[in-house]
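Sequence, please.
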């Protein structure tokens, strides 16, 4: 009997792309953990993400949360809603992530990026994830929502715990750690909301409290979902970019000589080593997809990371090639659940890379083996030890 295909197997977490290639030949089949139905081809992924009637976000907590977790902390978030509730909630928060809002924020993000880049490159050898990739989006979140930037180690732990829940088969001790993280997050956000009610500022939480358009549960769920999405995605994008460039020094030289190529570099990293690896949906009726019958009530794992290496969509899909003609379009999802923070993540990455590239000539890994995050939802290095070759001023 063939062993089950397991998204959480250690060799798959280290490199999921061979399994993804195998799955695309499927094209739809059940995988572990939990017997989910994996959708891996580009066209099938787009079909699922566009069809909220047959592939729903409502009730996802019942679909993947284990019984030892008493409640779903993001149950009232827009990521767990379909229209019309999704439309209402997205409309309430989308203004903060619009082009004009980000333009107002850009100068502050650039200042943060310059400060962090200077301190990071001066260290010569550094854990890039801890020194730069995580602090930058955490400090940007602080600007947006008033979260304490000094608590970024806690925030990272909370985010990792939330993202690991769907794939967890934890020990009793680990279960208690995850429950404790949720309790700590809830306490932190309750204080944040109460503070903004008493002393409103110019941040998003203050705007939402003033508008009185969200229930207490909706506001709390929004903050719970925002924490991992708001900085884990950007942190993984930055770390994945430096990892890929350390493996492709010719591309680093190319983009360093012409910083106008940075947006192209970011788009190819989002395709080649995407921070967002998968999304989940529930099947509302017996459904045919890719010639396979998926039963009502099944949990579907929409494998973005597999779709972005689909040979039918991208020429030389396993080759890192900034500037390729075929655009990916899927790194931040598709349809009504397209990531609200996509523009912000791209801006943070662009400004962060600009600040770094002005200060370096090269970069290398000090350890070839990378420890990856333990989640099939998001993927990035837990740490990234790098050695800089600083730019020599003339």
């Amino acid at each position: 009997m063939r062993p089950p295909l397991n998204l959480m197997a250690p060799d798959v977490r280290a490199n999921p792309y061979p399994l993804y290639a195998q799955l695309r030949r499927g094209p739809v089949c059940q995988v572990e953990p939990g017997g989910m139905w994996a959708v891996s081809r580009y066209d099938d992924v787009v079909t699922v993400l566009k069809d909220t009637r047959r592939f729903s976000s409502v009730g996802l907590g019942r679909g993947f949360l284990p019984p030892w977790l008493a409640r779903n902390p993001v149950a009232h978030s827009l990521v767990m809603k379909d229209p019309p509730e999704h439309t209402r909630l997205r409309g309430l928060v989308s203004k903060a992530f619009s082009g004009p809002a980000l333009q107002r924020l850009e100068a502050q993000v650039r200042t943060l990026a310059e400060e962090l880049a200077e301190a990071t490159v001066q260290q010569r050898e550094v854990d890039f994830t801890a020194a730069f990739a995580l602090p930058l989006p955490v400090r940007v979140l602080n600007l947006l929502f008033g979260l304490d930037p000094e608590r970024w180690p806690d925030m990272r732990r909370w985010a990792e715990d939330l993202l690991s829940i769907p794939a967890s088969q934890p020990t009793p001790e680990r279960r208690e750690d995850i429950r404790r993280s949720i309790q700590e997050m809830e306490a932190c956000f309750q204080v944040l909301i109460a503070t903004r009610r008493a002393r409103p500022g110019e941040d998003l939480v203050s705007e939402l409290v003033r508008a009185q358009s969200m229930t207490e549960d909706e506001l709390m769920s929004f903050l719970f979902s925002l924490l991992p999405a708001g900085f884990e995605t950007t942190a993984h994008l930055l770390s994945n970019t430096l990892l890929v460039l350390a493996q492709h020094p010719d591309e680093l030289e190319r983009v360093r000589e012409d910083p106008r190529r940075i947006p192209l570099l970011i788009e190819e990293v989002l395709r080649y080593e995407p921070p967002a690896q998968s999304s989940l949906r529930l099947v509302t009726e017996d459904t045919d997809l890719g010639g396979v019958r998926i039963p009502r009530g099944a949990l579907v794992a929409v494998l973005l990371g597999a779709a972005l290496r689909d040979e039918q969509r991208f020429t030389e899909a396993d080759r890192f090639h900034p500037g390729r003609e075929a655009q990916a379009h899927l790194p931040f999802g598709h349809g009504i659940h397209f990531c609200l923070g996509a523009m912000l993540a791209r801006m943070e990455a662009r400004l962060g890379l600009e600040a770094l590239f002005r200060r370096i000539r090269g970069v290398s890994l000090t350890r070839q083996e990378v420890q990856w995050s333990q989640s099939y939802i998001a993927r990035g290095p837990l740490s990234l030890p790098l050695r800089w070759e600083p730019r020599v001023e003339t």
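Residues 10-390 form a domain with the Cytochrome p450 fold (CATH 1.10.630.10).
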